[in-house]
Structure formats: structure tokens, C-alpha cells
């Protein structure tokens, strides 16, 4: 069940096992503030840290520069899913990039940044698996976004599928995430 609530002044949405008193339908959840981009890919990441939040990632990303030497606008992801350290366990927070439908700065590849929704789970999945609540949240969010933007199963990718990296780590539950998506026609 999707539930809207405010946390530290940010709009946050959590996937909860039990329905809350105040809720939002899946069609209302995660609606951007402006007209949607033509999204066709979802790129999955881990933070490679033990804890973190939208604010902490934003602070680090603001120190980054692009290939031309220009500073990043801030957090490069569209969504962040907490692990219980600095954010709620399984809590999903959309970032300013999602709300304003801006290209990401997360994939290391122009095409995936322009057309790919970047989702980062807090944690280092080379060392340990995500929490059960994070897995539930990523499965629900990917299913919702794939349906809303007609993103096919083969266009839901890990960062390592589009760039030379190990992200999102060897313990990322890839098959569990894909299990929520209908098989691609013809496969």
C-alpha cells in the first residue's frame, strides 16, 4: 500500500504492508510536479554506503563535476530508498529531479541519464543484501513506474548493465525485482 507522509520537510512515500489511515492510490503516488518526460528505462543502483539519505547524497553529488567541468545540480537519482539509517527502512523519497522531470546524473551514459529513471537503494550490496523492506519497496516502485511509463522488462536494468561498474552489487536481488514485471511479449 502506498502512503504519503512528510519527513523533514520532504515529500516521502513509503510502501507499507498494512494500509494507513491516510493514503494515496497507486495512480496518484509519485506524480511529478510537471509533465512527464518520455521515460523508457529504469536504472537500479546502490549507494555503496552503510547509511545515507537524499540530503547526504545531494551534498556529495553537488561536489561532482561533469566531463566539461560544470558542477552537478545535486543528487543524480530520481528516487532513493532508505535502509533504516538516516531514512526509514523501505522509505521511498522522490528527488527534485523526479519532481521537475529532469535528466538524471546517475548512469555514466548519456542515453540512460536522459531517458532512464535512476533509483538508488541505500546500502552496500557487495557486502550484504538489502533489507526486506527495501526489496518490497523497489519491487513495488519498479512495477508502478514500468506500468505507468510503459517500460518493458528488458529496459529495467542494473547500473552494471549500462556502464563499467559492479553497481548495484553482488547481493542485489535482481531476479526478485524482475519477478514483479510481466514477461516481455515474444520471450
Q: Percent range for helical residues? A: 10-25%
Average pLDDT for all residues:
84
Query: Would you count the extended β strands for me?
Result: 7
What's the helix-strand series? EEEHEEHHEHEH
Shape: globular
Task: Kindly provide the name of the CATH class.
Answer: Alpha Beta
Q: How many domains?
A: 1
Model regions low in confidence, pLDDT < 50 over at least 5 residues:
1-23
Q: CATH superfamily name?
A: Peptidoglycan recognition protein-like
Protein structure class: alpha/beta
Tell me what portion of residues adopts beta-strand conformation.
15-25%
Number of helices: 5
Alpha-carbon distance between the termini? 30 Å
Radius of gyration from CA coordinates: 15 Å
- CATH fold group: Lysozyme-like
Largest sheet, spatial ordering of strands:
1-2-5-4-6-3-7
Known CATH architecture: 3-Layer(aba) Sandwich
Largest sheet: 7 strands, mixed
Could you list some keywords that capture this structure?
single chain, 187 residues, Lysozyme-like, 7-stranded mixed sheet, 7 strands
Kindly describe this structure.
The structure is a single chain. Strand 1 (2-7) and strand 2 form a beta hairpin. With 187 residues, this protein is α/β, with parallel strands linked by helices. It starts with a strand and ends in a 9-residue tail after the last helix. The relative contact order is 0.19. The protein has one domain (2-17, 36-178): Lysozyme-like, CATH 3.40.80. The longest helix has 17 residues, at 132-148. It has 5 helices and 7 strands; from the N terminus they run E-E-E-H-E-E-H-H-E-H-E-H. The protein has helices at 54-61, 96-99, 110-115, 132-148, 174-178, and strands at residues 2-7, 10-15, 41-46, 79-81, 91-94, 116-121, 156-158. Strands 1-2-5-4-6-3-7 form a 7-stranded mixed beta sheet. It is globular, with a radius of gyration of 15 Å.
Amino acid at each position: 500500500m502506498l502512503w504519503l507522509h512528510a519527513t523533514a520537510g520532504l515529500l516521502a512515500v513509503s510502501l507499507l504492508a498494512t494500509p494507513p489511515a491516510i493514503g494515496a492510490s497507486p495512480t496518484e503516488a509519485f506524480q511529478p510536479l510537471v509533465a512527464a518526460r518520455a521515460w523508457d528505462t529504469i536504472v537500479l543502483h546502490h549507494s555503496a554506503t552503510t547509511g545515507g539519505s537524499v540530503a547526504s547524497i545531494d551534498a556529495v553529488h553537488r561536489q561532482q563535476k561533469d566531463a566539461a567541468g560544470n558542477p552537478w545540480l545535486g543528487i543524480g537519482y530520481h528516487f532513493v530508498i532508505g535502509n533504516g539509517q538516516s531514512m526509514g527502512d523501505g522509505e521511498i523519497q522522490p528527488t527534485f529531479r523526479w519532481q521537475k522531470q529532469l535528466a538524471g546524473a546517475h548512469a555514466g551514459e548519456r542515453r540512460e541519464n536522459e531517458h532512464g529513471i535512476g533509483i538508488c537503494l541505500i546500502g552496500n550490496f557487495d557486502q550484504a543484501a538489502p533489507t526486506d523492506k527495501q526489496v518490497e519497496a523497489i519491487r513495488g516502485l519498479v512495477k508502478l513506474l514500468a506500468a505507468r511509463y510503459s517500460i518493458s522488462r528488458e529496459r529495467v536494468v542494473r547500473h552494471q548493465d549500462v556502464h563499467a561498474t559492479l553497481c548495484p552489487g553482488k547481493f542485489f536481488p535482481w531476479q526478485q525485482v524482475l519477478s514483479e514485471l510481466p514477461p516481455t511479449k515474444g520471450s
